[in-house]
């Protein structure tokens, strides 16, 4: 097995995890908060796709699908196109309102772009330094694992949130 096979498996799992967390959820469920400052399902799904798209596209040397495929216009969020959700305030989290189908469509497109990039990689590419501002410097392999780690963390939060919402709706 090559390293890119492991990365392909990782990126491939994110979409399924998020799909299970938000599929079939209505707007009320997608925007409900467990407390006044908690993340919503809609924000979590959007952020997972944005952070993947926003970080992988520059590595791949491509434009983000957020802008190149018209997702920014379809979502019509009140943020700059460069926003990926990092550092969002509670009020900004609340502004992410979108149906599950739109969220999943964007995630599928961002995932496809990530998988296309990973497919081009050779094992030696993962040792290339992509960020020298850290000590030690960050390699491509470390950056891709970091992107996956953040996505898995937020997908777990979405799964937990959906479970709580489903149990409290009974």
From TrEMBL:
Protein origin, superkingdom: Bacteria
The record's section on Pfam families has:
MST
**NCBIfam families to which the protein is assigned, alphabetical:** MST_Rv0443
Q: What name does the UniProt record give this protein?
A: Chorismate synthase
Per the UniProt record, the source organism is Cellulomonas persica
Lineage here is: Bacteria, Bacillati, Actinomycetota, Actinomycetes, Micrococcales
């Amino acid at each position: 097995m090559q390293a890119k096979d492991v990365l392909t498996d990782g990126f491939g799992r994110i979409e399924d995890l998020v799909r299970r967390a938000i599929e079939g959820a209505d707007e009320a469920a997608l925007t409900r908060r467990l407390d006044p400052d908690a993340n919503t399902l809609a924000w979590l799904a959007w952020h997972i796709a944005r952070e993947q798209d926003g970080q992988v596209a520059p590595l791949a040397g491509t434009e983000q699908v957020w802008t190149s495929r018209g997702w920014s216009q379809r979502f019509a969020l009140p943020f700059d196109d460069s926003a990926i959700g990092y550092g969002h305030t509670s009020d900004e989290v609340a502004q992410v309102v979108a149906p599950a189908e739109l969220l999943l469509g964007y995630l599928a497109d961002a995932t496809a772009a990530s998988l296309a990039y990973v497919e081009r990689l050779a094992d030696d590419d993962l040792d290339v330094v992509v960020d020298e501002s850290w000590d030690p410097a960050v390699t491509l392999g470390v950056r891709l694992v970091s992107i996956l780690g953040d996505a898995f963390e937020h997908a777990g939060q979405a799964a937990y949130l959906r479970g709580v919402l489903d149990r409290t709706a009974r």
